Amino acid sequence: MADLARNGWSGSVGGAVLAISAAIGLGAASATAAPNPLASVPTPLSTSPDRLFGAYLAGRHAQQVRDCNTAAGWYDKAIADDPDAPELISRTFLMDVCIGRFDRARALAEKELKLDPGDAVAELVLVVDRLKAGDAAGALKHAQSLRSEGVHRFVGPFALAWTRMAMHDLAGADSALQGLDKFNGLQPLKVFQLGLLYDFAGKADKARQYFDKALRDAEQLNWRLTDAIANFEERHGRADQANSLYQRFIRQNSGSDLALSVRAARQPGPPEPTIRSATDGLAEAMFDLASVLNQAQTIDLALLYDRFALALRPQFPLAQLLLADILSAQQKPEESLAVLADVAPGSPYYWSARLRSAINLDTLDRSDEAIAQLKAMSAENAGLTGAEVQLGDILRGKKRFGEAVAAYEEAIRRAAASGLPERWQLFYDRGVALERSGQWKRAEGDLLHALQLKPDQPLVLNYLGYSWIDRGENLDRGLKMIEKAVALKPEDGYITDSLGWAHYRMGDYSGAVQYLEKATELVPQDPTINDHLGDAYWQTGRLVEARYQWRRALQFGPQENEVKPIEAKLENGLHLPAVPPRGG
Between these two residues, 263 and 541, which has the higher pLDDT value? Predict the structure, then answer.
């Protein structure tokens, strides 16, 4: 969602992600899996081998497809039959952490450390357990055992810093965070954490130095940095500076609903400190790390660290929202909905949670509920645009383009009335809905305005350029725009498809083949791209290959109204209907 895109540090500390191995998926247990599961799980005489191995293999399959809840359930059954099997201990422990079942994980952590003394996840579970129990010395002992190499090497400095703060050792905590210097890309997090550390210690002048540096170094503000520093300023009698910071965030993030809704929901008077205890501090650090890692290649690790953040601080709305986002990205909308339901109605983040809930409802084909919820939210608060934007997106996805236009228009009107910066995305969205509803002249105006606001936006370049070519207008300019979009996003198969299809519509069939073949490499199972390639093959005399591509297009589930035209081409040869540009 556009208004929630920068909750934490995702995209702000990208260099750190590149340093992490991609092989961190939850499809692998923390201990090395034996190639033969029958050898790694001894069977007691009193247990049915079929039941034990069946549960174990079912758990492994669920783990491999990242269904942690199901995997945990199967491993529970297996480990109940054989509680001392090393393979089951390792896998059950990891799944318990991944689903946030820390009471069970705690019971297995010491067993896991006997099997693998270097298991950082097990050490971190014990850090959390001791810190929450008020045993600062015990927490520090386990933090000191965290290794400085391996996938979890970033965790140690944060855990050491906040467990030392629990021991009232500010100098030691500062020194621990300096250990982040050896990792590329984590400097922004280090500076922010030092600010939080000194703020918590009551050293306001030192905290302000670090917070000021964090702001100077930030090319674009993320919400966590903004809100934490504004919180600090308000508590120290600098409300004007806090308000200026919020306004800067709103300008940079196109009038984010996040900032507006959070500020509107807060109670009058000085806010509570961002960090109220060393436990809160470590929860914040784990959330920040999870935010950095919330990318496709490292999303499993983001899930793991966010679970730790919530284990330390269960009522941590930003961590709850991040967890919901991760679960949605992993195609688990029902689990995401359950997490969002735990965000209390009195929370400043309740509005954001409801916007996310609507997305999940739509994903679950409960679109009528999502639409009703968004309309109710829109009526509740006329100063926010997020509900109308999300409503437009859902309606457009349902091909209810006229209604989508009305929703986007209301969002644009509200943004203007509130004096918010114009958003290219809103004009692009309305332009697409107008074009699909047959209102081309208005659509063209919106797309041109979106391009004026964001001249190098690939989606706008692609849609407007292709629309012109499809209509036989501004052919050279349209083609150059699509070429520019491809240059900006060369790995986007859909934009490459548009370029190939533009060449096709202009009669350059050999050029079309070149780009459409590339598009099918980038997105192999898209029915429209395969259909387009089949048409281009036909026009270049490659008739057998053309029919092969059309058959593939049918295999990949085209829209209902696209099936008969493809079947007709298979039977009679090429007969091509007009095709709308990609991106609508």
Answer: 541
Residue 139, domain member (yes or no): no
**Residue 312, CA distances (Å) to 95, 190, 334, 538 in order:** 18, 20, 24, 62
Domain span at residue 59 reads: 25-133
Give φ, ψ of 76 to 5 degrees.
-60, -45
Confidence grade of residue 575 (pLDDT, cut at 50, 70, 90): low
The answer to whether 320 and 340 have CB atoms below 8 angstroms apart is: yes
Residues 447 and 380 in one domain: yes
- Give the CATH number for residue 122: 1.25.40.10
275 and 182 fall within a common domain? yes
Share above pLDDT 90 across residues of the chain, in percent, rounded to a whole number? 79
Integer Cα distance of 245 and 74 in angstroms: 49
Mean pLDDT of 227-256: 90
- Here the tokens at position 571 are 């039977």
- Measured CA to CA, the distance from residue 307 to residue 316 in angstroms comes to 11
Domain match, 449 and 463 both: no
Instruction: Domain count for the chain, please give it.
Output: 4
Residues 209 and 285 in one domain: yes
- Report CA-CA distances (Å) from 296 to 10, 96, 324, 539: 11, 22, 15, 38
- Single-letter amino acid, residue 343: V
Determine the 3-state secondary structure of 30 from DSSP.
coil
| Collapsed DSSP state (helix, strand, coil) of residue 455 | coil
User: 10-24 burial, b for 16+ CB within 10 Å, e for fewer?
Assistant: bebbeebbeebeeeb
Residue burial 526-553, b: 16+ Cβ < 10 Å; e: rest: bbbbbbbbbbbbbbeebeebbbebbebb
Q: Are residues 399 and 541 in the same domain?
A: no
Q: Which of 286, 346, 353 lies closest to 320 in space, CA to CA?
A: 353
In a domain, 7, yes or no: no
